Amino acid sequence: MSDATSTRERTLDVVTEVARRLGADRVTTDPETLLKNSSDWSRMSPVLEEKVPRGRYVADAVVRPRTPEEVADVLALAHAADVPVTPRGSGTGNYGQATPFDGGIVLDLRRLDRIEVLEGEGVLAGAGALLSKIDRAARAAGRDIWVFPSTKASTVGGFVAGGSAGTGTIEHGTTTDGFVRALTVAPMDGSGRLLHLRGEDALPYVHAYGVTGIVVEVEVATEPAREWTAVYAAFDSWAAMAHVHRSLLDLPVLPRLASGDEPALVPSLPASVDLDPGRFSLRVIAEASTVAEVERRVADAGGDVVAVLDDYASCDRLSGMSYNHPVLFLQRAHPDRTWFHMETGGEIYWTDPDAVRAVYPGDVHLHLELMGRGPLAMVVADYHDEAGVLAGMEAMETLGMTVHSPHQWYVDRNVDLAVRTARETDPKGLLNPGKLVPDHVVPTRVNVGVR
Ligand SMILES: Cc1cc2nc3c(=O)[nH]c(=O)nc-3n(C[C@H](O)[C@H](O)[C@H](O)COP(=O)(O)OP(=O)(O)OC[C@H]3O[C@@H](n4cnc5c(N)ncnc54)[C@H](O)[C@@H]3O)c2cc1C
């Protein structure tokens, strides 16, 4: 289709047809709703705050389908008219990866919220079902879902397409490690069809920000439900806390989560128990039969057990203080300062955290998580400029650490697979434009890559 008509005009034509076929309630062009649905939590990054501020890229319409088939219909219409489509769940992504860089349609998938606990090992859910509700349904049926993020109010489609790890990761890894048993995906190839993919075939759509297809249904892995207990402990030193943190990997049943924070991060944590702001905080979701052993290890390392809470709500509360959440709480507690964070990993967190602290000038704070392969940490530091952020990244890589920058919006995992898949499933490059950056392969109309 020629550029003779603007994206906005073509979008309005498409959504008029969507409203006629599916119902007027499926479409909105209300300016406030468009603005709200065109940004995410990238405001946690001062780099992204500058590059993709709220209001710079705004959709021309929001479409809210109710069924997988409706998603396929919308995509067929958008494809015919060359209208970009950016999928969206709860909008809790960190990287601006749900920002509609080329305008067009934002596809709000939250109405696809069906949940069915299957016989056997899976739960089948619409892409828009909230992980909190999926977890509740699974627990009621005597099952635990393998993994969920600290943003448990996010959608399963958004977590699979844009997230990666969380509570459950110590044992079950990330979203690419078997959590996704099967997917139903709507491609942007003009066919109006739905693809059913199982096992490895689903991987091109996991953590791909929707550039390879819109996830409409997900089957996630579960296991028999366990009795979980929230254990709060406090230490006088990082070394003592790290010693216990590290030891948790050899418990007979792995914990579901193990988060640690320096004193500077502790006062802003919304814990249900009093936390000493002068001490290092370790919080563990431990399986009931291992709690006494965790308590013993805390005592042996010179720490104190602050609380042991054996109700599931307390475990949820503890989950809500994991991964990126302590960074957010710190930012909220100090609105006068500008912080940025880096997602990093390496045994160095157990052995020589000062080497990491030395990477950035000024105040540097560490939040620790446990993964099956070792520690993961959020490094929070004073923001000066993007060059300083990138220089620190390089220094951490030199230290042998793994580093993921939360200050970029493009697909940066399994990129070749995404590119190969998108050639077939989105030949016009209309899905979430600007997120699959190799522009020699998939054309995008904007060039906003950071590197
Ligand atoms: C404070 C804070 C803490 C966080 N903690 C974690 C954490 O513990 N673990 C973690 O992994 N992440 C975490 N995140 C990131 C984010 O919450 C997760 O990625 C989340 O699961 C995204 O879900 P969502 O429904 O909000 O998706 P959105 O933000 O709406 O979308 C995420 C991405 O997926 C795409 N997308 C959405 N739905 C679909 C679909 N159905 N099909 C195809 N593409 C789609 C979007 O275009 C976007 O690129 C955190 C974010 C914040 C702000």
TrEMBL record:
- PROSITE patterns in the cross-refs: FAD_PCMH
Where along the sequence do coiled-coil regions lie? Answer: none
FAD-binding PCMH-type domain location = 55-225
SUPFAM superfamilies noted in UniProt? FAD-binding/transporter-associated domain-like (SSF56176), FAD-linked oxidases, C-terminal domain (SSF55103)
Q: Does the keyword Flavoprotein apply?
A: yes
| Family annotation (InterPro entries) | FAD-bd_PCMH, FAD-bd_PCMH-like_sf, FAD-bd_PCMH_sub2, FAD-linked_Oxase-like_C, Oxid_FAD_bind_N
What does the UniProt keyword field contain? FAD, Flavoprotein
Spell out the protein name for this chain.
FAD-binding oxidoreductase
Q: What organism does the record attribute this protein to? A: Nocardioides oceani
